[in-house]
Amino acid sequence: MGTHPILKSMIPVLEGIANTFGKNCEVALHDFSSPQNPIIAIINPHVTGREVGAPLPEAILKVLKSDNIENLINYKNKSNDGKILKSSAIFIKDENGKPIGCLTINIDISEFIMVKNTLSEFCEVADTTEENRESYTGSVSDVLESIVNTTLENYGKPVNFMTKEEKVQIVKMLDAKGTFLIRGAVDYVARILCVSRYTIYNYLDEIRVGEDFGKY
């Protein structure tokens, strides 16, 4: 019995996939009519060391024995010589819906895993809270804008929905960060909170009186 025409038509696809993903991508075509030696075409066989006539992988055999034939996409695999593979198996069916073969893709991602681990280690940093996070910006106005925007974002409520007490709380948080030591901060915060600069001074007086009262 010869190779099914549908499978023959898939052979050029192998080369297209392999050329797209490069030498670390093995693509093989399996013919289920020859279960003992089903591989009828393979490109970049060095990835797994298989060749034409090699048997079906265990993962594919398991699917064929099940009642539900579904494609296997992006599962982790390993070659006999220890390469880490990203694998997929696409089942090919005839006009009656019967599986007649499959196309398998095995990409050697061993080098990518090493790079990923190296980058992960290099990028590991201690957990930094919002209070001691620094802003490396180009000017004093940039620093002021960054502090105010971050404080408002963390508060999580739009200014136009804030009560007077909530705006006082925002001013208190900004004061604790030394915001009002920056020249022009009072006018900037007043504009952002939609109040007058005198209102900001009143808020600050309330806050500082309360702090002084708390000492006694």
Q: TL;DR?
A:
The protein is α+β, with helices and mostly antiparallel strands and 216 residues long.
Rg over CA atoms, rounded to whole Å, is 33 Å
Major sheet characteristics: 5 strands, antiparallel
- Distance from first to last alpha carbon: 98 Å
Q: How many beta-strand runs?
A: 5
State the secondary-structure class.
Answer: alpha+beta
Count the helices. How many? 7
Strand order of the largest sheet: 2-1-5-4-3
Rounded mean pLDDT score: 86
- Elements, N to C (H/E): HEEHEEEHHHHH
Q: Report the portion of residues in β strands.
A: 15-25%
Described by the principal axes of the CA atoms, the overall outline is: elongated
Share in helix: 40-55%
Query: Low-confidence parts, pLDDT < 50 over ≥5 residues?
Result: none
Explain what the structure shows.
The structure is a single chain. The protein is an alpha+beta fold and 216 residues long. The chain is built from 7 helices and 5 strands. The protein has a 5-stranded antiparallel beta sheet, covered by helices on one side. The protein is elongated and about 90 Å long. The model has no long low-confidence stretch (mean pLDDT 86).
